[in-house]
Amino acid sequence: MKITKIEKKKRLYLLEIDANDKLYVTEDTIVHFMLSKNMEIDEATLKDIQKFTQFSYGKNLALYHISFKQRTAAEVKKYLEQHDIDSLYIPEILENLKKENWINDEQYVETYLSQNLNTGDKGAYVLKQKLIQKEINSQLIDQKLANLDFSPLSEKVAQKLLRIYQHKLSTKTLKDKIIQNMMNKGFSYSEAKIAFENLEVEKDSEQEFELLYKELDKQYRKYSKKYDGYELKQRLTQSLARKGFNFDDIASALRDYL
């Protein structure tokens, strides 16, 4: 068989063989086999060309995907599958990319965790779940997390939450709110509790009473439609206590209010 024509297209090269058969190949394939017009090839070489083209096309597609941002091996695998790369070639493509360090899950985890410590607000639990969703080995994640100190980040997150809620909630509710928010972000209860204890929370009794009366107004509008007398007082007391207000303060407020 003879290559009778090599013509460059947009992304691939068109090969004509014996002026009848046509084959699209990558530039890497041209270089790898040193293909040229009038070159004689046998059936075995043609099969090798076809196989290498599949591998080369898939690898180039993966490199394009990686060029936008760092990817995990699983993300690249999924991308190749979505673009109909033959499943026979995907393991070889991934192995080649790992060998050339285009894909490195360990490096990915280190970068991901480092970025969170510098600019993020997530604790270890949420980070691990997100990385597991990317099909990264759980032991690798645990190993990298074990080397990190989340204390500075937990204190920073607690401070941010304090600025949001301090003038809106009672002291007890404030503590519960901040700790719960931090646990939702992936910090352990212990980390959240220590971070809260390190905060400088302003204890303003006047503000506390303002918050209490504001909440009392709200709860009174709700319960006074259904209850009165002793039952109303009990409902208001229970509701305000659940909001974290002190029972003595509640009793004092109700004496003035009712």
TrEMBL record:
Pfam families, alphabetized: RecX_HTH2 (PF02631), RecX_HTH3 (PF21981)
GO biological process terms held by the UniProt record: regulation of DNA repair
Ranges for domain RecX second three-helical: 104-145
Transmembrane residue ranges: none
GO CC terms: cytoplasm
Keywords, sorted A to Z: Cytoplasm
Every RecX third three-helical domain range: 206-254
Entry-linked InterPro entries: RecX_HTH_2nd, RecX_HTH_3rd, Regulatory_RecX, WH-like_DNA-bd_sf
HAMAP family reported for this sequence: RecX
Protein name as annotated: Regulatory protein RecX
Organism from which the protein derives: Streptococcus gallolyticus
Gene name linked to the record: recX
